[in-house]
Amino acid sequence: MARSTIRLTMAQALVRYLCNQFTEIEGERVPLFAGVFAIFGHGNVTCLSEALEAVQDQLPTWRGQNEQSMALAAIGFAKAKKRRQIMVAASSIGPGATNMVTAAGVAHTNRLPVLLISGDSFANRQPDPVMQQVEHFGDPTITVNDSFKAVTRYWDRITLPGQIVSSLPQAVAAMLDPADCGPAFIGLCQDTQEMAFDYPEAFFEPTVWSVPRPRPDRERLAEAVELLRTAKKPLIIAGGGVAYSLAEDTVAAFAAARGIPVVETIAGKGALTHDHPVHAGPIGILGSTSANALAAEADVILAIGTRLMDFTTGSWTVFSHAAKFISINTARWDATKHRALAVVGDARETVEELHGAMGNWQAPAAWMANARHLFGEWNALLETHQAPTNALVPTYAQVVAAVHRGAGDSDRLIAAAGGVPGEVVKGWRVKAPGTFDCEFGYSCMGYELAAGWGAAMARTGNGTPIVMLGDGTYMMMNSDIYSSVLSGHKMIVIVCDNGGYAVINRLQNAKGIPGFNNLLKDCRVKEPFAVDFAKHAESMGALARRCETLADLEQAMTWAQSTDRTTVLTIVTDAFEWMPGDADWDVGVPEVSSRENVQAARADQERIRSKQRVGV
Question: Where is this region: Disordered (predicted)?
Answer without folding.
Answer: 596-616
